[in-house]
Amino acid sequence: MPQTTTAADSQPPDPTGSWLDERLRQYAATTTVYDEALDASGGLRAGWQPLIRHLGELTPADLQQRSSQAQRQIEKDGVVFNPHDAEGGSRPWRLDPIPLVIAQESWQAVARGLEQRGQLANLILLDLLGPQTLLHERIVPPELLFANPNYFPAYHDLVARPRQHVHLYAADLARNHSGTWCVSSNRTRAPSGLGFILENRLITNRLLPGVFSESNVLRLAAFFARYKESLASWSDHFRDNPRIALWSRGPNSRLYFEDAYLARYLGYTLVESNDLAVRQGRVMLKTLGGLIPLDVILRRLDDRNCDPSELEESTGAGVAGLLDVIRDEKVALANSIGSSYLEAPMLACYLQQICQHFFGEDLILPSVPTWWCGTQQGLSYVESNFEHLEILRAFRTDDSAPIRVGWLSADQQDELRQRIRQTPGQFVARSPVQRSTTPVWNNGGLAPWQLALRGFSVAGTDGSYSALPSALARVAPDGHALSRDMTSGEKSQDVWIVAASRVRSDSLLVRNSRQIELQRIGSDLPSRVAEDLYWLGRYLERAEQAIRLVRLTLQRVTSDDAADDEVRRLAILCESSGQLKPTENEPGDGADEPQSSATQIDSLGANPQSQSDGNYADLPERLIHDAFDQQQSHSLISIVSGAFESAGRVRDRVSLDSYRVIAQLHDQICRNPSAGIHGALDMLPILDEAVDSLAAISGLASESMTRTLGWRFLDLGRRIERACQTVALIAVVFDELDEDPSGELEDCLYLFDSFMTYRNRYLASIEVAPVLDLLVADESNPRSLISQLAIIAEHVEALPRPESSAMLSEEQRLSAKMYNQVRLENVIELAQGDDNGKLSELTRLVEDLAEGLPKLSDCLTSRFLIHAGTFQRHFSRSPASAS
């Protein structure tokens, strides 16, 4: 076993007298390279003994159970990466229950190397985009800058301000067979991984709470406190509480989870390109309260996508005019635009000389040996050692894995040689990355998987850099699988840097130098977030109504005394709501086309007899199939998917508990292997659980969300959707009542969870007038139509609007009109039939509301959810808050 050890780096074996002894002996026999846990003699390295002793006290079943618990917790938290990979689906983050342990004494050299490289990266960026002494003194070739496909001349005047432009630096690390750490790549544009490190630490600490404290693991909070302090220092105004936003690429980004996680943890506003605009020489955040200037932006976009007016405009991302604002020093970006230059693999060929130039010292962390093919000497070496090297593009434009030449066929090698000879300056070659191994829990035992680390250092307010006392660890049986990007690899591990003595706990919360102005409500909700919350509310309410309808239908049609009229009536309701395809519709007749709110409500009042041929023998099977048909835009499974996607877009605004319950609902309906394929009796428990989840979501929103604009738009969506559903149901059920309507009325009461209330009030048989009163005009019933309209009117009154406006807004008039119309209706008259036996007064009311509710929704969307105004809106207190 070719491993280098020292007395300080290893400890004699510490037999635990447990099942783990034999597993460790088997593990030691399979390691052939430097191992992170065992030295050459098979003894435990420094820091590992408390962990191994604790694991030995568990049984293999206990450890497997904890591993399963960790994975379930990760899935509950929604930790995913690479949402749009080759298979088109998201993959949960897999965490191994065994952490990687590194003694602090051993880690100190790595930390110093990360800090040195962070400072070096900042100096290189300042030089390449400034005086260019590295080019003038021929320390680096001009191709390093000017041949880079990411090069734009516009970058040159963006880094004049004296500060750390590489705010966060990351390096991908590998330990070679002699035990030396080497850097395989630099990450300087927007290094990812910090969010996953935090999640790894949180989960592992829960799994191994006692041994975590006993092992004296260094904490992470001090690093993130420095991270926040440094960003805040870049603001020219409000340094104690500056406006800082995390600029994400959006839900389609493979790292959107991390963006939302970090925004929540650091307390920053999560924004996307459409949330930002340049106005009056500042970068503004579009909010419901108007345009708010930002001081610092923590970006996740590529350099070339940041400003379509000066850089690339084909991506549809970015903020036009951003570079001008940066030049005027009215906003700071971390990391600065242009920092992607430093990720070029070609730079590794010259880092040693650059380090000598700036610091007069060698690199503490050497790079993996690399040769640029753009020089005759480099090309000659590469051709002479071709089969023993890896080939990479000289400039990083994607996350393609290096090409291992020795694995190619003879024809493929010849083809690659020709490509390099044609454009040698576009290629580099390097020695294959050697990796150490570390213990991983696999198939009930310990396996030596190869290891890749990503270490981080952050700039401080004094210009120095500090390394994170941990790292992102990725492990895989095949080391080459770790060479692609941060999301490659089979599993991750928490990385414990352990001290010899007890460590103190730090907090991310720091005391400001002056008192922050107290606030209880704000208008800084981005319009995009308001829209997502609004549609989250609508989808959730729509899902609840669909689930209740499908459940009631299956309960009724599977009972022994189900009457034909009752089955037909419920089938019509299912057809009207989109949960059941009408049997008479043929492909291409428009039955599957998406409908607007107005179209849905109008269609529900159509002649119900024309919607079906009366054949319901196979209704349960058809209903289950259609409700779980992902191709139908209004099916139950599509509605729940829409709710889950909306929640995912506002992860930083939705509480962790709420998101977990929404994810649970999504699993129950969309990922449950039993859903949609079994019979009615098997489906009913699934639907019962889904109703429970929806009730939990409602409770969390009601009891846990502060009454800000985010809550108002979420609740507005729910109330408008519930009102639409109530109007639609009344339009169908009361269009033509049977001579004995008790069955239809009872179904109505069940669907709106009002049956028990009716029975408690009216012990007699079910009548039309009392049912209409309970569902339409009873303000004490939280499910009634008037209750929804009253809450809608209250929310609309509390929305921001210009103080100078003397007139009611269109949405105020619409909401007040509908509320007062229902409030003034005489329920007895609504329940009375005309000469033709029709409830004409009720029909009139339904038609008015079917027209008004979509108008109100469209009005709210155009005024608040599509932000186009530039005036500053202010809040006016609602009647409820004024009291």
Write a compact overview of the structure shown.
44% of the residues lie in helices and 11% in strands.
Question: How can the largest sheet be summarized?
Answer: 7 strands, antiparallel
Class from secondary-structure proportions? alpha+beta
Shape: globular
Helix content: 40-55%
Low-confidence stretches: 1-10, 12-16, 83-89, 585-613, 868-883
Could you say how many structural domains there are in total? 2
Task: Give the CA-CA distance, first to last residue.
Answer: 77 Å
Number of β-strand runs? 22
Given the structure, what is the number of helices? 30
**Average residue pLDDT:** 85
Task: Write up this protein.
It is a single chain. With 883 residues, the chain is an alpha+beta fold. The chain contains 30 helices and 22 strands. It has 2 domains: 335 residues, no CATH class; 349 residues, no CATH class. The strands form 6 sheets. Strands 4, 5, 17, 18, 19, 20 and 21 form a 7-stranded antiparallel sheet that branches. A 4-stranded parallel sheet has the order 7-6-11-12, covered by helices on one side. A 4-stranded antiparallel sheet has the order 13-16-14-15, with helices on one face. Helix 15 packs parallel to helix 22. The N terminus and C terminus are likely disordered.
